[in-house]
Structure formats: C-alpha cells, structure tokens
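Run log, item B.
One chain of 126 residues. Sequence copied directly from the ordering sheet:
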Amino acid sequence: MDFLTALKGGTPLGDTFADRLIKTSGFVPNLASNSGGFLNTAKNALGNFGDWLFKENNTNKITNFDKLSNILGGAGALYSAYNQQKMAKKNFDLQKQAFDFNKYLSNEELRRRANIENKLQNVWAS
C-alpha cells in the first residue's frame, strides 16, 4: 500500500478529499524529491550558507569565514582571559592564607620564647 492509497482511505469521500488536497497544495510525499522536498530545502540552505561563508570581499580578499573565525578567536581569547583572572584571584587568596598562617606561627613562636624567658627569669630571681 503506497502513501496515496493510505491517505485516500479507500472511500469515495477520502478519494475526493485526498485528490483535491494533493492537487491544490502541491504536496509531495517524497522528502528527497526534485520538486523541493525537505532534504532539498536543507541542502539548498546549507549550500547558501556555504556560499555566504566562503564569499570573498573583492577589495581585501577576506571571506566571511575569516571574519567568523576572527570573532570566534576573539571570544576564545576573552574566555581565556576571564579564566586566567579567576585563577589569579584563587592563587592570590591561597597566598594570603599562607601568609596569615605563617604570621600566626611566627607570633606563637615569639609568645613561646617570651614565656620561656619569663619562667627562666622567675626561676633565677628566687
């Protein structure tokens, strides 16, 4: 059973409706037909995009592909710079934490030495 027979449904009413629908709308059930099916439309759209993409500007021989690649390269450079700035901030925070911890250790060592010195002085004074 082909597509048109299935569409007509085998009834006189279906025959008339389907014949009129196909004749008036130019409906073609084959997607890859030569008269402009979906696949041909998609192929033409991709072809037009390809023509636009590689069309040269006569004055400086720059294609739209070159322009598009420049835009994508610039976007990539911006994203890379953003990530680099984010990592630099994380690195700065880690270095600040390390500095604060070392400062704390140094202060503890000074307090420990001062405490030992006081205890020694108290022992010798008595």
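Observations after the first pass:
- The longest helix spans residues 64-125.
- Residues 13 and 54 are 53 Å apart (CA to CA).
Flagged for discussion on Thursday.
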